[in-house]
Amino acid sequence: MTERCPRARLQGRATLAGYRLEFRREADVTPCNGASVEGLIWQITGDCLAALDAFEEYPEVYDRLRLPVRRAVGGDPAAWVYVMVPRPPLAPPNLAYLSTLRRGYTAHRLPTEQLNTALDRARDGTR
Hints:
Elements: E1 9-23, E2 27-43, H1 46-55, E3 62-68, E4 78-84, H2 95-107, H3 113-124
Antiparallel strand pairs: 1-2, 3-4
């Protein structure tokens, strides 16, 4: 994020309720009752949003939705969330991509169990 959006400011951890993490070679979130995804929320500029749109290949590969998230501190804001369109089949990510995600999760003390569960589902090809 700091490379793509140097003016973005980390606001802390956030929870996206009603979704789960999945891998379709790349990370995606999918609606799922009773599930949630832990992540980070950033304050971004218009230039940041344009850079992220280009990186995520919006709107061809990812759509951008404004969804409510929960924060332990600082209220419950709405956040931009990228979701794949159309959704390809579940498939594990490459090792370099997965390693990058694991480093980020560890650095920000996010639960790596959600990565492991999503990886298991992708390897099994199960929903």
